[in-house]
Specification:
One of its GO terms (molecular function) is magnesium ion binding. One of its GO terms (biological process) is carbohydrate metabolic process. The chain is α+β, with helices and mostly antiparallel strands and 840 residues long. Helices cover 40% and strands 20% of the residues. It folds into four domains: 251 residues, no CATH class; 144 residues, Alpha-D-Glucose-1,6-Bisphosphate, subunit A, domain 3 (Alpha-D-Glucose-1,6-Bisphosphate, Chain A, domain 3); 199 residues, Alpha-D-Glucose-1,6-Bisphosphate, Chain A, domain 3, CATH 3.40.120.10; 84 residues, Alpha-D-phosphohexomutase, C-terminal domain (TATA-Binding Protein, 2-Layer Sandwich). Helix 10 packs across helix 13. The chain is globular. The protein starts with 20 loop residues before the first helix and ends in an 8-residue tail after the last helix. The N terminus is likely disordered.
Length: 840
């Protein structure tokens, strides 16, 4: 036992003083209570009580509110979809009326205003509208009024009379529902003018019963609830809603409404019990997790109580032993350090330990990191010509360390800023991807822009779509994205937006000329930083509604989407399995090129092993996306476009859909069958966006994986947003993506075939092929390269805009037809380039 120096042990026997109970109890030291146990118990209660409160909150408040909010979002979506469908149907009906009135017989009757001829025309037009109750053609006088003297002239009531009056006076006249002889009818009116005799006009009054609109209320998914069509009327001194037509039945749930454009109607939707139950089933408090947490708390308390007692006993033994044997001691319970020190002082009889006379203050001797000298302004023509091959059709691209040295980058940045100033653009957004060279290039570009007198908004390390988003969101409508896109790690480049438009070949050439001559604007700009990621996430989440959570594997390929895409999909309510989501510009796990299916093997394995609903892979900067189904099938982008076209065109009849020359012609046939208009166009993300703006298309896509949404989005290519739209479509379907695409048109086709040809030879070779190739049984199209359509398929050969190569693709109904088309192209290409290695 340890004997403290300077103290004698009392001898047993009679005490020399009066002995108290405390003195008899181990020399005045006793245990009263257990503070350690009480502290642990208090900590246990501090943890347990919030858990119990959280359980009560989740069960009684949060879960019902979350269920209600989710049901409301789903119901709002159904109401909006149905309202758009009815509005589009009414617009289509007016178009049909306009087409019918344009017939020669109708125009003659309008011109002559012969009552007998008008009756015949009415009957003929009525045959064109079998669903109509009646159709009247009412000639207008030279004064522009219908002859309604002597009564309603066959019109049913003052409502039809008022419709005729309003349209004849060129006033807005929405269709109107009313009751006539106990039956609900709907009438719409519009004026028809003779194209050659402007004074000859007539009013077409088309009347339908409500069965037509009841049919419009049928939802493609079946009876998901009650749909009702209501009209606001003024009656008995107040506005009230009257029900025109309805379908289905709803549960005891809040109704959602949506305005039908260009009508006095709204669609009311009450979800069915089945839909409410289905949506509600996906919202449940995490009782299991909370239960596990409670059990863990109890186990942790018991374990901590036992462990802490043993640890305290062990630590006290070590302190006493260290004091007895004068050995070095590390105390593991900091609160016992004062006790250990006091015991050490008493036993060692030393005021200090060791000699402090040789202690020297530590000095930080590390050298500063090497930094490059800051780029200064560049004036005058370039002493060496800028590499022409870095200036591509719609971006600038090359090997970062050789083609994109600091002076070249500075000249390009100065040229961009100069052109922006000529366009009246003062501020440019700048973003960059995760490549090793991107930060350097971004710094040089920013300095060049500032010294050219433009301001800079630095949006940081982001995927390319966020640069496009920034130029749509912020007042700055111009920007530069530093990215090597889908190219290997040693490459880098610039994608450029000027005044809201991604630039193409003409502007690229202008940038090259200004960069070469050095005629730059001068000034002093200002730079700020702006985080647009949260704005982007908020915008996408507010636009996309996921009815049923999905399990999605996200393969970012170590690209710039790695820190955004998983968060986005999780906020949308999906379960995300991240794959290669650490941003690493060396791309250690796979190439950033998602067009090569060999790069997707890890994604396929991950989808299969996790039984995911589907997986997605993005290229290096996130403007391309590839989808892998739950069965491990890689979906080519033209098939993905068919899925999106079904969704977009079905809800927007007559919509334009733009697709590039590499896409399957089955896509065009499907779009036409849905009532849309397919628009074939040149390959290239900038060219596609120009065509989207020109046509007002609601959807666009390239075979390489660029998907453009003009409906509900900004029209730029965004792989992450496309993933969200795909999840939205699939979450509203009671089938897998494999089932969803099983009934799509199928053809035998090749992937994109790369034929290496030097940049300075590829366009001349392509032109020679176009001029000399002859396909007797095919229909050639030289919109972009040469695409030849045959009866059972097609073939394409074109010069790549992004690399030193020709690209080819072929499609046919079967393998024999595919080989026949390949052979035709192979023979024709070999005739103009006999030394070329043709890999098909």
């Amino acid at each position: 036992m340890l004997k403290l120096p300077g103290k004698k042990n009392p001898k047993p026997g009679k005490p020399t003083k009066a002995t108290s109970d405390e003195q008899r109890n181990t020399q005045g030291v006793s245990a009263r209570g257990n503070t350690l146990r009480s502290a642990l118990l208090l900590g246990f209660l501090i943890v347990l009580v919030p858990l119990l409160l959280a359980t009560a909150y989740l069960a009684l408040l949060h879960a019902p509110l979350e269920k209600s909010a989710l049901i409301q979002r789903v119901a709002d979506s159904y109401a909006s979809q149905q309202a758009r469908y009815i509005g589009n149907s009414v617009a289509a009906l007016r178009s049909r009326v306009e087409s019918a009135v344009g017939s020669p017989l109708a125009l003659q009757a309008i011109a002559e205003q012969n009552p007998a001829d008008i009756r015949l025309v009415e009957q003929a037009m009525l045959d064109y509208f079998p669903q109509a109750v009646s159709l009247r053609l009412l000639p207008l006088s030279d004064m522009g009024t219908a002859d309604l003297a002597g009564g309603f002239q066959g019109l049913r009531n003052h409502i039809e009379v008022d419709l005729v009056r309003r349209v004849s006076n060129n006033e807005p006249a929405e269709p109107e529902a009313y009751q006539f002889e106990g039956q609900w009818l709907v009438s719409l009116a519009q004026v028809a003018t003779h194209p050659r005799i402007s004074s000859r006009r007539a009013v077409v009054l088309l009347t339908l019963d409500t069965s037509t609109f009841e049919a419009m209320l049928n939802h493609p998914e079946g009876m998901v609830g009650e749909f009702a069509l209501e009209q606001r009327v003024y009656s008995e001194g107040a506005d009230r809603d009257i029900r025109i037509a309805s379908q289905g039945s709803g549960a005891d749930a809040p109704a959602s409404t949506a305005k039908v454009n260009d009508t006095p109607w709204r669609v009311l939707f009450v979800p069915s019990s089945a839909l409410v139950n289905e949506v509600s089933s996906h919202v449940s408090p995490p009782y299991g997790v909370l239960g596990i947490l409670m059990l863990c708390c109890i186990f942790g308390f018991v374990f901590a109580l036992q462990r802490s007692s043993k640890a305290l006993d062990s630590e006290l033994e070590r302190i006493i032993d260290g004091a007895e044997h004068r050995t070095p001691l590390d105390v593991h319970i900091p609160q016992l350090v004062p006790l250990a020190k006091d015991l050490r002082k008493l036993t060692l009889r030393r005021a200090r330990m060791g000699n402090t006379s040789n202690i020297v203050p530590a000095v930080d001797t590390h050298s500063a990191a090497h930094t490059n000298t800051a780029m200064t302004a560049v004036d005058g023509p370039a002493t060496q010509g800028l590499s022409p091959h870095i200036f591509r059709a719609y971006d600038i691209r090359g090997v970062a360390d050789t083609d994109l040295d600091d002076e070249t980058v500075y000249r390009i940045g100065s040229a961009i800023a100069t052109i922006a100033g000529e366009l009246g653009e003062q501020t440019l957004c700048i973003g960059y991807d995760g490549r090793a060279s991107s930060s350097r290039i971004k710094g040089v570009i920013e300095k060049a822009v500032l010294q050219a007198g433009r301001d800079v908004i630095d949006i940081g390390l982001v995927p390319t779509p966020l640069l496009y988003f920034a130029t749509s969101l912020l007042e700055a409508k111009s920007g530069v994205m530093i990215t090597g896109s889908h190219n290997p790690a040693e490459y880098n480049g610039l994608k450029i937006v000027l005044k809201g438009q991604t630039i193409a070949e003409g502007t690229i050439e202008k940038i090259r000329n200004i960069a070469q001559t050095g005629r730059f604007s001068k000034g002093t700009g200002h730079a700020i930083q702006r985080d647009v990621v949260s704005d982007y996430l908020d915008e996408v989440v507010s636009d996309i509604a996921i009815a049923v959570p999905l399990k999605i594997v996200v393969d970012a390929g170590n690209g710039a989407t790695g820190h955004i895409a998983p968060a986005l999909l999780e906020e949308l309510g999906c379960e995300v399995i991240p794959l290669f989501c650490d941003v690493d510009g060396r791309f250690p796990n796979r190439s950033p090129d998602t067009g090569n299916e060999d790069n997707l093997s890890a994604l396929v394995r991950e989808v299969l092993s996790n039984a995911a609903d589907f997986g997605v892979a993005y290229d290096g900067d996130g403007d391309r996306v590839v989808v892998v189904t739950g069965s491990g099938r890689i979906i080519r982008s033209d098939t993905l476009m068919m899925i999106f076209a079904r969704d977009v065109v079905t809800r927007n009849p007559g919509a334009d859909v733009v697709y590039d020359v590499k896409c399957s012609r089955n896509l065009a046939q499907l779009i036409t069958g849905l009532g849309g208009r397919p628009v074939l166009w040149k390959t290239g993300h900038a060219l596609m966006k120009e065509k989207m703006v020109e046509t007002g298309a609601l959807l666009g896509g390239e075979f390489s994986g660029h998907i453009f949404f003009g409906e509900r989005w900004y029209g730029f290519d965004d792989g992450m947003y496309a993933t969200g739209r795909l999840a939205e479509i699939l979450s509203s379907q009671d089938q897998s993506i494999d089932d969803f695409i099983s009934d799509l048109p199928v053809a035998v086709s090749t992937p994109e075939i790369i034929i290496p040809v030097p940049d300075d030879e590829k366009f001349a070779l392509m032109q020679k092929f176009i001029e000399s190739a002859r396909f007797a049984d095919g229909k050639p199209n030289d919109l972009d390269g040469l695409r030849v359509d045959f009866q059972d398929g097609w073939g394409l050969l074109r010069a790549s805009n992004t690399g030193p190569a020709l690209t080819a693709r072929f499609e046919a109904g079967d393998e024999a037809g595919l080989e026949k088309i390949r052979s035709l192209f192979r023979e024709q290409l070999a005739a103009v380039a006999p030394d070329l290695n043709i890999p098909f």
